[in-house]
Design goal:
The chain has 8 helices and 11 strands. It has helices at about 10-25, 35-45, 60-70, 85-95, 105-130, 160-170, 180-185, 195-210, and strands at about 5-10, 30, 50-55, 75-80, 100, 135, 140-145, 150, 155, 220, 225-230. Strand 4 (about 75-80), helix 4 (about 85-95) and strand 5 form a beta-alpha-beta unit. The longest helix has 23 residues, at about 105-130. About 35% of the residues are buried.
Amino acid sequence: MKDKILVVDDDSHIRQVIVFALEKIGKNVYQAKNGKEAISIFNEIEPDMIILDINMPEIDGFEVCKEIRKNSDIPILFLSSRDDEIDRIVGLEIGGDDYVTKPFSPRELTARVNAILKRVNSYDIRNNQNDTNIISHGSLLMEIDNHICRWEGVEISLTATEFSILQGLLKYPKKVFNRDDIMNNSYDININVSDRTIDSHIRRIRSKFEGHNCNKIIETVRGVGYRLGSF
């Protein structure tokens, strides 16, 4: 089945550019012109991914993301007309998987979309084959093929990117990964991802585990990078 992607932007020209690019690579695309319409369509069609503009009137992209994250871990790629670092950081820390600044290359956008969906779809394919791969360390357990992460038996909800980052650290619990290692392990293709983007994903993973009384899921090794915490 074709991936269903919801494109949300108040600029009809930008929506048309994105729709054309996505349909060209075989995606089934739906459109929303504002945040309220986006939430309604999301609830109706349950898309596989959302491309979400930040700067919209009334209900902006951040608020739409927060509403969706109450019940879903669907991948969200943010669009913004501003290249402000604060927008990028906030977007990732409230649950976004990636961030693209306008004006953008349709080729780069579709590459990022494919990279995110590749991670999500790979879990579904293996799960349909009933081949569950479980890795664990201390109180942390991850069912890779089912995209399930548990801490002390309690399931922790992670986005596709967050899951990939933590999975990479868990495979080699004593290894220190620099940001380039984490980016290459998590994004699958050669795209430009800033250090601050990786840092934002790490902070969000930590925040989710801190909510379950785990304050050391990922350790910082100053001047080098990150490794799985000692627990």
